[in-house]
Amino acid sequence: MSGWLLMGLPGAIFVAGLSESWIAIGLIIGAWLNWLFVAGRLRVHTEHNHNALTLPDYFSHRFEDESRMLRIFSALVILVFFTIYCASGVVAGARLFESTFGMPYEYALWVGAAATILYVFIGGFLAVSWTDTVQATLMIFALLITPLFVIFALGDMGTVMATIEAQNPANFDMFRGLSFVAIISLLAWGLGYFGQPHILVRFMAADSIKTIPNARRIGMTWMILTLAGAVAVGFLGIAYFADHPEQAGAVSQNGERVFMELVKILFNPWVAGIILSGVLAAVMSTLSAQLLVSSSALTQDFYKAMLRKHASQTELVWVGRGMVLLIALIAIGIASNPESKVLGLVSYAWAGFGAAFGPVVLISLLWKRMTRNGALAGMLVGAVTVVVWKEFIGLGLYEIIPGFILASIAIVVVSKLGAEPAPSIVKRFEEADADYHAG
């Protein structure tokens, strides 16, 4: 979860009421299915495929791709969509510093980005894993305590509900202004989970397949509670600012500020500081993971694989640090537009990964007859469909849906039309599959 959990989602609920909570429902279903079908299988399959460390690495070994086309194209997809995704994190961090310290947006941009870049630059994967644990604790604390304080400030739950209804009864309507296509589009956010490199890489890094069921329980409990908290913050915020219109200036300009404004108004400044650091925690936890995955794509999949096969570990670490800085600077450039919205940037990148990688990952773990050309076709069709649909077609349908469907069809059709996969590929798949079912 990134800054959109504390800004984008509460902002959407604050502006449009409960109808926007379909996103949260879709994400919960998608994440649970991802844990169920992908997590354990990916952990075992990456081990059988030369202990692959990155998604391009896994694709390359899974399909014995000597041409390196899979590695190059998947690394390109990672770089393009992650740079957009990183920009959403930079925007969220900038909004936090802008709102909390009254900084101009252009300065807040650099301060927020620097906070994350520094520890990724110094600490790498372990630093990101440890800080994620602390950050997740801060986020759940912030999202569970804030709705309670809104209720205390307004009296009781009955008063809150009456105020929201008086403001606009349609706030309670889950179907408010939504067509069938719009509801499917919001639920389809869940499809994105199957293709997110920064999430999949955590499955690859699991201690063993035996840790997956426990991880799933912890992860899903945390996720359901934080999403419920985010929806509650946005929804109860409607009541608070309807009751206190004199304090609603900032949220009427930008609904994504609702969480930060409520915290600043309702809490002692010292406590507010700790809770607001939950926003920074959300931004840092995801931005750091994205920077790390993008950097490893450039370092492992371009630099080491194609330019310097025998590069030393120290050299790779320094190249990786250089790549972190480069990607961060491009993301800052994209985020420099003060009109940028966190949720808008996230939705584009989420769809890009979901459609380009989701079907390839899912089918590669479930179907032994999938071929290299099938994987390449799926990636290409998924990524191109998302961009073309977003820019030229639209029709009110979230671009991940046509992208995911067309990519899946491309994988199956191209795999069936081409030559059978090599016996060594099938044998390795069967061994990994047997290991997964035995574990």
From TrEMBL:
GO terms for biological process: proline transport. It holds the Pfam family SSF. It catalyses: L-proline(in) + Na(+)(in) = L-proline(out) + Na(+)(out). This is Sodium/proline symporter. Catalyzes the sodium-dependent uptake of extracellular L-proline. It is a multi-pass membrane protein. Keywords: Amino-acid transport, Cell inner membrane, Cell membrane, Ion transport, Membrane, Sodium, Sodium transport, Symport, Transmembrane, Transmembrane helix, Transport. It comes from the Bacteria. NCBIfam families: Na_Pro_sym (TIGR02121), sss (TIGR00813). The chain crosses the membrane at residues 12-37, 72-95, 107-129, 136-154, 174-194, 220-242, 270-295, 316-336, 348-367, 374-394, 400-419. One of its GO terms (molecular function) is L-proline transmembrane transporter activity. The keyword Protease does not apply. The lineage of its organism: Bacteria, Pseudomonadati, Pseudomonadota, Gammaproteobacteria, Pseudomonadales. The keyword Transmembrane helix applies. It comes from Stutzerimonas stutzeri (strain A1501). GO terms for cellular component: plasma membrane. InterPro entries: Na/Glc_symporter_sf (IPR038377), Na/Pro_symporter (IPR011851), Na/solute_symporter (IPR001734), Na/solute_symporter_CS (IPR018212), Sodium:Solute_Symporter (IPR050277). It is found in: Cell inner membrane; Cell membrane. Belongs to the sodium:solute symporter (SSF) (TC 2.A.21) family.
